[in-house]
């Protein structure tokens, strides 16, 4: 009987496996012209909201949106004015807003969230610069680690979703404006 004794301190090398092929990154369409996006982030609960920004930038880069300028404002209520000023510069082809509106017990958070969303829609319609919202208002938010963890993950998901919506909308507007210029539509 052939036995081999091994010192438990000596690691044996395992047979190396060939690398598992990864799914290639999805091919996202290219833009005809470079796009510049403004990302306006509220600082209230920054550690939660920044997850949207981080995920947005990563997904935006994968979708060929490589020019993203980040702006911070104190809270969500201040986002619409910044969005309007940025849209009027005509430097940005899109603006993304991210914030967390929670019930602070002083005023109705639904009122604040509703006001912010309506103001962002107004900016977009007045300036024809698309404005996207990752301004969220949870039904309940308690300053516990469980809620912070949940909303950090949720904001990361929303960051990816808003990047996809932004890229797809900009591609659609680029096609539509091309059709209008060519006299196909309009």
Automatic annotation (TrEMBL):
InterPro entries: LS, LS/RS, LS/RS_sf. (2S)-2-hydroxy-3-oxobutyl phosphate binds at residue 147. The active site is at residue 108. GO terms for cellular component: cytosol; riboflavin synthase complex. Pathway: Cofactor biosynthesis; riboflavin biosynthesis; riboflavin from 2-hydroxy-3-oxobutyl phosphate and 5-amino-6-(D-ribitylamino)uracil: step 1/2. Pfam families: DMRL_synthase. Residues 1-28 are annotated as: Disordered. It catalyses: (2S)-2-hydroxy-3-oxobutyl phosphate + 5-amino-6-(D-ribitylamino)uracil = 6,7-dimethyl-8-(1-D-ribityl)lumazine + phosphate + 2 H2O + H(+). Catalyzes the formation of 6,7-dimethyl-8-ribityllumazine by condensation of 5-amino-6-(D-ribitylamino)uracil with 3,4-dihydroxy-2-butanone 4-phosphate. This is the penultimate step in the biosynthesis of riboflavin. This is 6,7-dimethyl-8-ribityllumazine synthase. It comes from Bradyrhizobium ottawaense.
């Amino acid at each position: 009987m052939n036995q081999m004794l091994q010192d438990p301190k000596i690691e044996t090398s395992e047979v190396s496996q060939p690398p598992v092929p990864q799914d290639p990154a999805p091919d996202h369409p290219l833009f005809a012209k470079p796009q510049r996006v403004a990302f306006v982030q509220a600082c209230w609960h920054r550690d939660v909201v920044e997850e949207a920004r981080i995920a947005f930038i990563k997904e935006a880069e994968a979708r060929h949106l490589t020019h993203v300028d980040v702006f911070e404002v104190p809270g969500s209520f201040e986002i619409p004015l910044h969005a309007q000023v940025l849209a009027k510069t005509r430097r940005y082809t899109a603006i993304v807003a991210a914030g967390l509106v929670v019930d602070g017990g002083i005023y109705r958070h639904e009122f604040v969230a509703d006001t912010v969303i309506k103001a962002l829609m107004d900016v977009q319609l007045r300036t024809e610069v698309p404005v996207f919202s990752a301004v969220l208002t949870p039904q309940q938010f308690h300053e516990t680690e469980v809620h912070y963890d949940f909303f950090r993950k949720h904001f990361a998901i929303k960051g990816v979703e808003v990047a996809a919506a932004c890229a797809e909308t900009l591609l659609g507007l680029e096609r539509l404006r091309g059709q209008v210029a060519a006299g196909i539509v309009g």
